[in-house]
Amino acid sequence: MIFSEKLAVLRKNKGLTQEALAEKLNVSRQAVAKWESGQAYPDISNLIQISNLMNVTVDYLVRDGECIKSLASDADAGTGANIEEIIQFRLEANVNTYAAFMNEVESTRLDSHDFHYQNGDYVYHDTYVGGEQFAGEEAVWKSGKALYAMNYLGRVLSKDFSGNFLKDALRHADCKMPYRGPEHYEDGEFIYKCSVNGDFSWFQGYEEIFFHDKKVYECYFHGGLMVSNS
Question: Could you tell me the pTM of the whole model?
C-alpha cells in the first residue's frame, strides 16, 4: 500500500472528511486531495502531524509495503492451484472460522482449540494452544496436498484487551494483507496494526492492539507457500 492509499484509509477510519483533516493540519482541502490522489506529497512537518493524529509512525507512512505476488499470475507453486485461489480461499476461511466464532471442531491435540473449513477441494484448518499466551498454526490444502501454512505466537498484555475487537480486525483482512488482519483498523478506543515483510510465498509479520494508546496485545507470525521440490 502506497502513501496516498494509506492516508485515505487512515482518514476514513478516523471518520474524517478531507475538509476536516485539512483543518486539523492547517492546510487546504485541495492539498489533502492531491496527497490522496498521488499528485503531491506532504512535507516533513505535515507528515509528523499526520503520524501524531493517526497514531502511526512516519516510517509507516512513507515506506511502501512489500507487494504480494501478482494475483493474476498463473504460477502454481507446484501445487496445481494459483496464488490468487489460495489467497481468496484463505480469506474466505478466515471469515468462517475463529474470527467469526464459527466452525470450531474437536481438538486434534491435547488441550488445543481447532477450527475447520472446507469448500470444494480446498480445506483450511487452524489449531492453537494456550489462552492469554498462545501459539498455533493454520494451513490450507487442495485435494489433500498442503499449499500454505502459517505459525503464530502471541500474548495478551493487559486486562483492557478485547478478543471481540481482535476478531473484528481479523475479519477485515483483504487481498492486499491476507496474512492476519489489515495494516490499520480502528473501532472506538481500540487500534489494530499489522506489518509484514515479504510476500505471500514467504513472509514474517507482527500485529498489535492498542487501547487508549497503551499496547494491550501482540502477536508474531510467519509462513508461506509449500513449494514442491519435484
Answer: 0.67
